[in-house]
Amino acid sequence: MDSHLGLQAGLDSQLAGFIRALRAAGAEASLAEAIDAARAVALVGYGDRDTLKCTLAAALAKSEEEKGICDEVFELFFKLPDRGRPDAQKADGEGDGEGEGEAPRTGDAEVDALLDLAQQQQAGDPSAMAAALQRAGQKAGVDDIRFQSQSAYLTRQLLEQMGIRKLEQLQQQLNQAGDENVEATTDDGRTALRQALAAARAQLQRQARAHVDQRFALFGKPATEAFLREVAVERPLGRMSPADMDRMKAAVARMAKRLAQRHSHRKRILLRGQLDLRRTIRANAGHDGVPVSLHFKHKRVDKPRIVAVCDVSGSVAAHVRFLLLFLYALKGTVADLEAFAFSNRLRDVGPPLDLLPFDDAMNLIIRDVGGGSTDYGQAWQDLHDQHWHLIDGRTTVLVLGDGRSNQTNPRLDLFAELTARAKRVVWLSPEAEGRWGTGDSALLAYRPFCTHLSHAANAGDLERAIDEALSAYG
Fold this sequence. Notes:
The structure is a single chain. By secondary structure, the chain is an alpha/beta fold. The protein is built from 18 helices and eight strands. The strands form two sheets. It has a six-stranded mixed β-sheet with strand order 5-4-3-6-7-8, with helices on both faces. Strands 1-2 form a two-stranded antiparallel sheet. The longest helix is centred in the middle third of the chain and has 47 residues, at about 185-235.
């Protein structure tokens, strides 16, 4: 039946391949979940497509997003080869002879098996072809495809594993002078066999190429995109192409998720505390000293509290975009987040970031805030007058800017007061250290008051800085 996948053989390798494709697509299926999936599939089998799809999603998807990924990967991974094209052009000018009675016999078991596969495919049963392609693809290493330029080579390797070389040799012999070694020795028999071989060869080539394209979509394309994201992460933020910007959004989302998992895990460990030996002994004095009830020393762990102050003038804007993208992707971990932007007057940009799609919010912020002449002193004054209550001993102030204030008063007095109030002040500069203090840069004057000051050239630098900021709350 159509729902039959025809791939029961090699269940373990099939499931491992599916989980690998799932991870490549962005769903983080754990080892425990993979074991659960294997046990579930062992019970339901591969016979019914809908049941298998629901079973894998239940075992491997942890959210609606991952459920969508799981369904999408399932449809691609377990896609059966297309049925033959009865209206296809006849190969090499010959009749196709497809679907007409039993396939001709050659006397060569390998070639006859290929003829049978092609005939079953044309008859509307693609399961045997799917199983053969799967087995041959594993031997040819098709699942290791990384670049689309490998497709032609791997298609040929797959066909070689299926035995197409013998089919081609026999076809060539028949086309030249006939062959006494084949069972069909009459002229009509040779003609029918030539037609069947040509049709089978064309069919196998189409299906092999489709199988390789499918595996590239599952394994190669995600690997290529992952490589390009890694390149984009290390590329200077001020020199991002439109394609890099799209890849960076995905990269930042993954980096933020990784940070959230890391710091949530650390928080759970620290909240458990250390054994309080004195309290435990006192509490269990009535049990002859047997520690029936344990008491722990609990270390207070502050929740991350971040106030971001961002210069959105000039070339700094690209860096601000990704810093805020990072921070707002961490909303679950950094529940107490305030974001401000300035070129001269400081503005609270939290509301548009909360209410609008991120790109729309950033375009609005750059347009409304980024047009003035940069004045850091005025920004500190506005922060002091309107938002000073947000900064206390639990707050990390994260400043992103180059410190170039157009020769205006940098208000070091206010900045010193700010650093005295805050838990930490982390300053990220888009300019390299060699330019700090040159021209109208006041960065070296601010430096003594900062807990940490570093060059943030790319997304990797932003990740490390945010990781360090969150670590202070452990």
